[in-house]
Description:
Oligomer: heterodimer
Mean pLDDT of chain A: 94
Helix content of chain A: under 10%
Low-confidence stretches of chain A: none
Radius of gyration of chain B: 13 Å
Largest sheet of chain A: 7 strands, mixed
Amino acid sequence: GAGVSQSPRYKVAKRGQDVALRCDPISGHVSLFWYQQALGQGPEFLTYFQNEAQLDKSGLPSDRFFAERPEGSVSTLKIQRTQQEDSAVYLCASSRYGETQYFGPGTRLLVL
Amino acid sequence: DAKTTQPPSMDCAEGRAANLPCNHSTISGNEYVYWYRQIHSQGPQYIIHGLKNNETNEMASLIITEDRKSSTLILPHATLRDTAVYYCIVRVASGGSYIPTFGRGTSLIVHP
């Protein structure tokens, strides 16, 4: 069956640009997570959805980061006015109810 | 969730068993031990999880000590494709707003 997909796989942005990263979770998965992974580090939690409700956004590093999941399926992570420190891999994961998480391939963002 | 401690790196000869340790001395009674791995440029992949009994699946075996303060992930016949970063996480497996802490994991290199 289809796994978690993310698009684009690679994104190059100029500093100050806005970017939108998309995540398509596994069909029927209630929970969706976003992580940020810097080079050489483990994934760091950003935010969590249960269906369309954003239950935890404590990991979002600033108010430039915004995530939504309006219909409880596809999710979008938006970064406004990107900065060089935003360069990282952004990972999306889904799970049926929050236990075992299945990850997408990630979006590699490079801010110049 | 309890924190875990893993060695930063290990190596193993192809065809031999790879034994990856993890310490979780502050684990609570209702927390499971989860293992994920991340192959270069891919998202993390679920391997196995357990509560107190040893577990085995097609990928690996998980041995949890009787006091549950440590565990070992065993890859019985390591191949070059098992080269990856392995993450040990402890968490409550009841869903909800679980926020996993990945840490830096163990970088396993399987050599010919």
